[in-house]
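S1.2 Input.
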Amino acid sequence: MTEHENEYGVSQAPDSGVLTVEEAADGNAPRIALVEEAAPDALAEMKAERDQLLDRLARLQAEFDNARKRQEREKQEFRDYATGSVVEQFLPVVDNFALALNANASAEQLRTGVELIVKQMDETLRQLNVQAVATVGQQFDPRMHEALGTIERADLPDHAVAEEIRKGYRIRERLLRPALVRIVSNPKQTEA
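S1.3 Output.
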C-alpha cells in the first residue's frame, strides 16, 4: 500500500491513468495529472458549490418563513374584517337595548320595545344567513337537537320534539348551536 492509500483509505484502480507522486517523480512516465494537483481544485469547487447551496437554502427558508407569516397576518386581517362587519350589523340592536333600559315607560311598553328589538335581531341574523333550527313537532335529530328530557304525551309520535327550551341556530348547513329540547315519550307507541 502506498502512503496515499494509507492516508486517505483509498487505492488506485489499475491502469486508471492517474499517477501518484512517486510515479511522476522518476520522470519516465508521461505527466497526465497528479492526485495532489487535481484534488485542491476539485475540493475548492465543491466547497464553493456547497456554500452556494447553503446560501440558497437559507434564502428559501427565510422566504418560506416570510410567506407563512404573511399568510397568518392576512388570515387575521380577514377574521378582523369579517368580525367587524358582523358586529357592525348588531350595533343598532345594542343601541335599541340601551334606549329601552333608559326609557321611563310602563312594563307593557317595555315588553313591546323588547319584542321589536328581538324582531330587529332576527332580521339581522337572517341577513347573515343564520337560521333557527326547526324544533317543535319535528322528529328528534341528534345532529340538530340536544335532548334535555322527555315528556309523556299520547298526542305526538314517539321521539318527536315536544318543547323548545333554547333555540338552536345554523348558518347555511353548518350548525352553530343545537336546539335544547324536550322530546316525547309516547307510552302507546313504546308498548307496541
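S1.4 Remarks. Residues 35-102 form the longest helix (68 residues).
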